[in-house]
Amino acid sequence: MEHDISCGSGSEEVRCQGELRPEPSPDLATLLQFKVYRRRWFILLVLCLLNCSNAMLWLTFAPVADESARALGVSLDQINWLSLVYMIVAIPLSFVSTWMLDTWGLRLTLILGAWLNMLGSVLRFVGVLHVMDPPRRFPLVMAGQVVCAVAQPLVIFSPTKLAGVWFPQQQRATANMIASMSNPLGVLFANILSPLIAGSSGDLSTLLLSYSLPATVVCFLATVGIRDSVPPTPPSASAETSNSEPFLQGIRLLLQNRAYMLLMMCFGSAVAIFTCFSTLLEQILCVKEYTNDFAGLCGALFILCGVVGAAGLGFYVDRTRKFTEVTKVNMCLSSLGCSAFAVFSQLRGQKVLVAAVCSLFGLFGFSAYPVAMELSVECSYPVGEATSAGLIFIAGQVLSVVYMVILQALTKPLADSPRSVCAEGGTLSWRVPVLVMAGLWCFGTCVFVCFFHTEYKRLRAEEEAGGKKHNTTISTIAQTLDTAHTPDTKDIPNPSDTNDPSHTLNTSHIANTTHTLDIIDRPNPSDTHDTSHTLNPSHTLNPSHTLDTSHTANTTHTLDTTDRPNPSDTLHTTHTSSMAYMPNISGTLDTPNTLA
Predict the structure, then answer these.
(1) Domains of the chain: residue spans and CATH
(2) Greatest CA separation found in the chain?
(3) Backbone angles phi, psi at 419, to 5 degrees
(4) pLDDT tens digits for 585-596?
């Protein structure tokens, strides 16, 4: 009787003791190394709500600048500072925020940001209550804005960090897109809700109460729901070394990285123009008889189209990894949209064209933001995600302050503009500022397209690490399967045996072994049991046994025979694979060899 044992990594199947075992696959090796957790989606949801709430608090007053100035008894320039303070506060605190994210972790940073966001919103609401003296209202509102501005860098730097440490490689760009686009969604809601609430009630207290409620809910969710900064098992190879470089060392490496510095300046300029566009849109359009409601609609289209475009680009980049190509194409197309806005915004009665160019500007410009953030991580790896994305944000904030000051300085008062719908003292000519804004965008785009080139360092590191770990894991699994199926054969003599039962056959099989044992015994009555035992290597055993063993793989047999049975000897050999041979008295050795 014959039975085959095939135990080896070279075959498609591992067959051991009657069982069929599949060969370890690359997917199995990956599962043994990395794991994803469903709670990553809850953390992403909390971050999206927090990012959206903070953006709503940032641009609460921009769509209703005229009404806010009248209610608080201040000028339009002071109302603009309620938005501009975000950029000023973020510049020094951004370095601290990036250090906190890369050192303290995601959990503590998000919880701190949620509490600051809630406290700032409540302080703003208290500042506009009727019980407050009018001279104290604006300082309290400004103090609330400052507290919310402190929370912004803690929140806005988190998308790349969350995507890097909680999401697998094929979901990172999508997760980053969802978290990043929640910020412009907050701007969208502010552009829609602020004119509706402030216009219907005519009271800022209702408006600010409406914005403080979501901030309170998000603070509760973040405090109670976020339990860990990183998952127990990393989702990818790069997540294991997410903080491989210390903060100061990471800053030094970024400043020495030519590709990163070029991306930081060009896309930081784009972020600054986005900020100026969102903040000044209502003041630019009111001069040409466009109402605040229409300005809010244009801002909403700008953001909504950007979110739709970012969703498509996120899925596309996750599958193609074409970060550089997508960013360059989108910046070129958005430069056309910005230039068109500079022209059509200075025309009266062109609502369709103005709304269309705002939509196109957002579709191609805003949608590139999450892709550019992922690109910053790819070209700066192994620097931490928060550090690489944070410096671009800092550059955007610094340039936002510079651009806002320049653009406002370039405006000219209009002595006669009877058809203007701007508030008293707010009728300014924005013709030169919008042309300068378009020129800055086009210049940054040209520099980026012509000179930016980089390799994707994080993807390359993951491929190298994944290949090494895959080979190591496959080798370990194969060795485990091989050693788990090592037959051990021992001769156990019959109790009637009068000889010394020291006949031991130890067979060590090392994987992929086809073991066929055929023993034929043909002694005559006068046989003195001169045994020829043929085994690899060759052994001699009396009586004349012919042991023919064929091995198809690495097999080491050790046969130690000190037993010389007499004709009356009955020798039972128990093999772990059920092998027994029994010589009879007549000298005919009948060996039922069973190997299963």
Answers:
(1) 36-230+244-453 (1.20.1250.20), 489-590 (no CATH)
(2) 137
(3) -95, 5
(4) 344 444 444 333
pLDDT in tens, 467-488: 555 454 444 444 544 544 444 4
Residues 6+ apart with CB under 8 A from 232: 35, 37
Q: Report the sign of the C-alpha dihedral through residues 85, 189, 161, 223, in that order.
A: positive
- First-residue to last-residue Cα distance in the chain: 9
DSSP, residue by residue, 178-227? HHHHHHHHHHHHHHHHHHHHHHHH--HHHHHHHHHHHHHHHHHHHHHH--
The answer to whether 15 and 6 have CB atoms below 8 angstroms apart is yes
Distant-in-sequence contacts of 106-109, Cβ < 8 A, 24+ apart: 106/43, 106/158, 106/161, 106/162, 106/165, 106/226, 106/229, 106/230, 107/226, 107/227, 107/228, 107/229, 108/229, 109/154, 109/158
CA distance linking residue 508 with residue 502, whole number of Å: 19
| Bond preceding residue 24 cis, omega within 30 of 0 | no
Angle, CA of 396, 402 and 406, to the nearest 5°: 135
Whole-model pTM: value is 0.62
Contact assessment for residue 391 and residue 153, using Cβ atoms and an 8 Å cutoff = no
The three-class DSSP label of residue 392 is helix
DSSP-assigned letter for residue 299: H
